[in-house]
Design a protein that fits this description.
single chain; Yope Regulator, Chain: A; 2 domains; 6-stranded antiparallel sheet; 19 strands; 24% strand
Amino acid sequence: MNEVSGAGWSALVMDDTNPSAASPVKAAAPVSEAVSVMDAPRDASPIDLEATVPYAPQTAPRSSARSAVARAERASGGDEGEDLIGRTLGQYHILEHLGKGSMARVYKARHLGLERVSALKIIDPNLVARRPGIRDQFWAEARAAANLAHPHVVTIHNLGSDGGFHFIEMEYVPGSLSLRDSLVKEGPFEPTRAARLVRQVLKALGAAHAAGLVHRDVKPANVLLTPEGNAKLADFGLAQARKKLSGAGQPLAGTPTFMAPELFAGTPASPQSDVYAVGVMFYSLLTGRLPFRADRIDALIRMHQNQPIPDIRQIAPGVNARLAAIIERCLAKSPADRYATADELGDEIQLLIHHFRDTEGLLRRSLEGIDCFIQGSRDTFRVLIPQPGDRLHEVMVEVSDGEGDRGERFLSVFSVCGPADPEYYGFALAMNSRLTFGGLSIRYVLGKPMLVMSRTFARDRVGSRDLRDAIVEIAANADRIEKKMTRLDLY
């Protein structure tokens, strides 16, 4: 047990959540790491600043607290980790142990009435005996997340008490690991995978923010991975309604290494402070390191508030400038300089994901199920699509760089209709007015002016369906024009 002290606050932390730890990690269900501030010793050694630190006012003298703990230990036989496997609490039969934090244990359980397998999160009864109000804090998690029906949020089903135990029934995620567990076992994430998972977390946060909640404890340990490899945001134990987080001098709550600079000055938590935590998480997933680490809270606060963000590209050379800029904006010292909402950041990351995808993969996914032949490599491809009357038509798909330093790329879809003979101009203009995808123009092909049907997309924004529809319609219309103008099947 170690003390978090400095800036007028202190808290007791007990869990080692260092993502760079080399020890093996067991599969864990979402376990709150929230603990009491009541009995923090003043002469403690340096602390683990990656454990959750909630604020909790002292409600009883230390002697009274110790007496309450003693009574709880006598009532439970002194076994703080009493084995509940095989027992029944209320409607729940406990099947196996899944994970443990400093505040609660999580078990796999079966609801006897509904025959539903769930994750049952049971608060330590010793903590309740020492601080009776902690039960309400514990259940606040259930109430905060109960109305968030979202595919990337761990669903809360119920809460209850039985035999002196207080619990929350949550969605059971089979065989899941947290992002932290995966980081420890597998090392830093490949950028595309990290971006995809972070965007899913942002979708969950967007839903929470829209419901008026601030999570306040976003970090890899609180994100579960489903068997399909998707992310689910868990542990809303510190979540608070934004209307309650008003005014200066707010009590600290969160995980120090993931907390935004303004929080240490008493500024209320906000969607922008959640965005900051997402930035720290993104940085750690890509590098296996935290942007700021220190042995003491006062040193960590100074780093968050004043120290420049370490250049992620020096640690992870595979991170491109665009991704580095997104993380740098998330970690801006001022909330006003960060992304305004989780949704805004999620949209930016979606563009980044599209930027990462290769053109051939995009093209083949777009044309999946379409009778065609694809040939080419890198950023230039030809697609041959059968047309009525045993005809074929060729459509070219090419990528080009935009002008300026924005790194924007464009994807051009075009097909030759025939020679740019002036006698066909009227027909071309009339055809342009009826086209859904593409337009007719003159383009030099192999040194000769040709009538070409084309459509250009921002490569990193185009969807697979739009690309498929453009290719199929341009091929059909260009072949129809070629047949009318030349009666041949050359292009």
